[in-house]
Design brief:
Blueprint: H1 8-20, E1 41-44, H2 48-60, E2 66-70, H3 85-88, E3 109-113, E4 117-121, E5 126-129, E6 134-136, E7 139-142, E8 146-148, H4 166-176, E9 181-185, H5 189-200, E10 204-208, H6 221-233, E11 237-239, E12 244-248, E13 250-254, E14 259-262, E15 264-267, E16 271-273, H7 276-280, E17 289-291, E18 302-304, E19 309-313, E20 318-320, H8 325-339, E21 351-356, E22 359-365, E23 372-377, E24 382-389, E25 392-399, H9 402-413, E26 416-418, H10 420-424, E27 434-437
Parallel strand pairs: 1-2, 1-7, 2-3, 7-18, 9-10, 9-15, 10-11, 17-19
Antiparallel strand pairs: 4-5, 5-6, 8-16, 12-13, 13-14, 19-20, 21-22, 22-25, 23-24, 24-25, 26-27
Helix pairs in contact: 2-8
Bound molecules: flavin-adenine dinucleotide (FAD).
């Protein structure tokens, strides 16, 4: 366990200031002048959102006591490389950190790795860890992320691998080295990324998908079809509307009786938010911890960010639990601002990406809508799908097209109204299609 403890003098000073404080703020000593820094901050979770929240607090309130609890023994690290570089390169010597380890070395930082929080006592403002430690909090951020959903009721299920953390990725990378026939259960982003890497390594890959298309929850029909074609053209076999009944040594049996050779089986069937802590403490939970747009939960001293949070997303106009790197970063930063009582940065259009077979798929806004216009040459993996509500742009899916992705992102933010014919006209810039921008 790696601890950087708050020195006793600092704790005592904090206690004194807390006792002598008249108003809600302890002191502005910890932060920028005029900032209403109300109390010390505790972060539960050690991933993307936690690290970004930590970094934001450190930069906005350099001396404020911050305690971070993570059940993992690593400093917060990036998960996207785990299904890409790590598998491609047969492993990584160490995880890629979200922020440098030197950023945690600070006298007001108390870093508790390998420490799982098991209880939040909201009345006493205390949390408890699995090893029996108790810790008081002023403001608490829940950034516990999500875990891989496991397959229920499959005979031989103990032989199935999952991918969520660094150790999972190393184990999978190792097994792929000797794998000839890989079966992947689940045709979402993680499943298809693993399939792409394995196919590039000349492994025979079969993806078993319960639904009728790939990435069905996250993208529109057209994007699913493009992705399917990428996989099929590289030799990946995809079985739609199929379910696995049993996994045995050397094969997988489907519900319809089909047997598929498999010396390795991976399931990537989505995630479950780690919201039990919040739920047990009586916070409002429904597919994640419910928050407003600024990461506030139903308790004014508790915030939630990242994959565990089901937050109000203004661009989609509804509660939304994102499973995206960009959102986890942004929410971590915004939660930090909110906990410090600062004005919270305006929300950005939610986005995510996946890299497969050298094609970068970038998505933002409402990309499940099938009301679309297309530009570029999507069959050659270069172009944009513009998602519309009437003539207003609400989402963008771009293939190897970062420039138009940025442009469309701004147009969604500005609720731009576009001319559909002009969108399709590749000979003129996308900006020419704007009829009106409301914002
Ligand atoms: C393999 C993989 C590839 C991905 N690729 C992409 C991609 O290409 N593009 C994209 O947009 N997104 C991608 N993502 C998603 C992105 O990485 C996640 O959305 C992001 O990591 C979420 O950050 P988080 O901080 O909410 O959760 P996490 O990063 O999961 O961190 C949560 C942390 O909290 C810890 N924790 C949980 N419970 C407790 C507890 N009770 N006490 C203490 N600690 C606890 C966990 O162990 C974990 O360390 C990928 C995810 C994975 C797994």
């Amino acid at each position: 366990m790696f601890w950087i403890c708050l020195p006793v003098w600092k704790t005592e000073q904090l206690k004194r200031e807390r006792q002598s404080s008249d108003g809600p703020g302890i002191s502005a000593e910890y932060g920028e002048p005029g900032m209403s820094v109300s109390s010390d901050i505790t972060i539960v979770g050690g991933g993307q959102a936690a690290a970004r929240a930590f970094a934001a607090v450190r930069s906005l309130a350099p001396e404020l006591p911050v305690t971070l609890f993570s059940e993992e023994s690593h400093l917060p690290y990036e998960r996207p490389p785990l299904s890409k570089e790590c598998l491609r390169e047969g492993g990584l010597s160490e995880p890629q950190l979200v922020i440098p380890d030197s950023d945690y070395r600070h006298p007001a930082t108390d870093l508790r790795l390998g420490s799982r929080v098991i209880k939040i006592d909201r009345k006493k403002h205390r949390i408890e860890t699995a090893t029996g430690d108790s810790h008081s909090y002023g403001k608490l951020l829940i950034a516990t992320g999500a875990r891989a959903r496991t397959l229920p009721d499959v005979s031989g299920g103990e032989n199935i691998l999952y991918l969520r953390n660094f150790e999972d990725a190393l184990a999978l990378a190792d097994r792929l080295k000797f794998c000839r026939n890989l079966v992947i259960i689940g045709g979402g982003a993680i499943g298809t990324e693993i399939a792409a890497v394995a196919a590039e390594r000349s492994i025979t890959v079969t993806v078993i998908e319960a639904g009728s298309r790939l990435l069905a929850r996250a993208v529109c029909q057209m994007t699913s079809d493009l992705l399917r074609d990428c996989h099929l053209s590289r030799g990946v076999r995809v079985r739609f509307n199929s379910a696995v009944k049993a996994v045995s040594d050397g094969s997988v049996s489907l519900n319809d009786g089909t047997e598929i050779a498999a010396d390795l089986v991976v399931a990537a069937i989505g995630v479950v938010p780690n919201a039990e802590l919040a739920e047990q403490s009586g916070l409002e939970v429904s597919n994640g911890v419910l928050t407003d747009n600024d990461c506030r939960t139903s308790d004014p001293d508790i915030y939630a960010a990242g994959d565990v949070a089901n937050y109000y997303e203004p661009y989609l106009g509804r509660q939304f639990r994102s499973e995206s790197w960009a959102e986890a970063n942004m929410q971590g930063m915004r939660a930090a601002q909110a906990m410090l009582g600062l004005e919270v940065t305006k929300p950005v259009v939610p986005s995510f990406w996946t890299d497969q077979f050298g094609i970068s798929f970038q998505m933002c806004g409402n990309v499940t809508s099938d009301d679309i216009e297309m530009r570029g040459n999507l069959a050659s993996h270069q172009g944009a799908i513009v998602h519309l509500d009437g003539n207003r742009v609400v989402g963008a899916t771009c293939l190897n097209n970062p420039r138009e992705f940025r442009l469309l992102n701004r147009m969604i933010r500005d609720a731009a109204v576009l001319d559909r014919t002009a969108i399709r006209n590749q000979s003129q810039p996308l900006t020419e299609s704007v009829i009106d921008a409301a914002a």
